[in-house]
Amino acid sequence: MAKKKAAKKKRVVRNVNWFADAHYSLKMKRDALEAKVKLVKKEIEKIEAEALTKFGKEGIEGARGKKATAFIQELDHYNIEDRSKLDKYVKRTGKFELFQNRVSGVAIEEIMASNKRFKLEGAGLGLYTSVHFRTRKR
Questions:
Q1: Which of 3, 21, 23, 106 is 20 to 30 A removed from 81 (C-alpha atoms)?
Q2: d(CA 96, CA 27)
Q3: Could you tell me the sign of the dihedral formed by the alpha carbons of 127, 130, 131, 136, in that order?
Q4: For residue 70, which of 82, 81, 54 has the smallest C-alpha distance?
């Protein structure tokens, strides 16, 4: 019985230029696919608009095709129409859950630019920095 030799893994050495070209090529492939997706989304929007009109005229809420069923769905979305009234309501009732825990990066940067003594920690804020590999056309 002959012993099989263990396959030796070939180590691929890539120079830094390869990363730039490979990344850029993949971005171009992604952009081409996204352009196709954008066209399909436009077609979907057109069909949705026509369907809503048709369903409304016929007074129906749903339909069944060979491949799928379709229906009308209504969702409620809330927005602030009068911020001062909302603030007064929250202060009066203590319903702070109406607010979301988000901060504006632009607002923080403006405060930092105008107030050199401003400290993130003193305001209960932190900073997270993300690092990304980017390429662009030469």
A1: 106
A2: 43
A3: negative
A4: 54
Using alpha carbons only, give the angle 32, 35, 39 rounded to the nearest 5 degrees: 145
Q: Give the C-alpha separation, 105 to 127, whole Å.
A: 10
CA distance linking residue 65 with residue 45, whole number of Å: 19
pLDDT tens digits, 73-120 = 888 888 889 999 999 999 999 998 888 878 888 988 999 899 888 888
Beta strands in the chain (DSSP E): 62-64, 69-71
CA–CA separation, 31 and 25 (whole Å): 10
Q: Residue 37 corresponds to which tokens in the numbers above?
A: 């997706």
Is 32 exposed, middle or buried (CB count within 10 Å of its CB: 0-12, 13-18, 19+)? exposed
Domain ranges of the chain: 16-71, 83-123
